[in-house]
Amino acid sequence: MVEKEGIIREFKKREFYEKPSEIRNRKKKSIERKLQKKLRKMHQTYRG
After folding, report:
1. Which of 7, 13, 29, 46 is the 20 to 30 Å CA partner of 22?
2. Considering only CA atoms, which of 2, 24, 20, 4 is closest in space to residue 12?
3. pLDDT at position 10
4. Does some domain include residue 45?
5. Is residue 8, in this structure, part of any structural domain at all?
């Protein structure tokens, strides 16, 4: 199941050409989302 999911994700990613700037922006936004999620979790644990 996990293997299929990885293959499908990879196929969708390569379905259309993506400019290098779009790749950079997508990766940057992904990192920002992960950081925000981590900060939210840390904030919740301190609040109780």
Report:
1. 7
2. 4
3. 84
4. yes
5. no
Query: What pLDDT, on a 0 to 100 scale, did the predictor assign at position 27?
Result: 94
Domain count, the chain: 1
pLDDT digit string, tens, across residues 1-48:
666 778 888 888 888 899 999 999 999 999 999 999 999 988 887 765
Triad 2, 41, 27: Cα angle to 5°: 55
Q: Please give the residue range of the domain that contains residue 35.
A: 20-48
Distance (Å, rounded) from C-alpha 20 to C-alpha 10?
17
Residue 4 lies in a domain: no
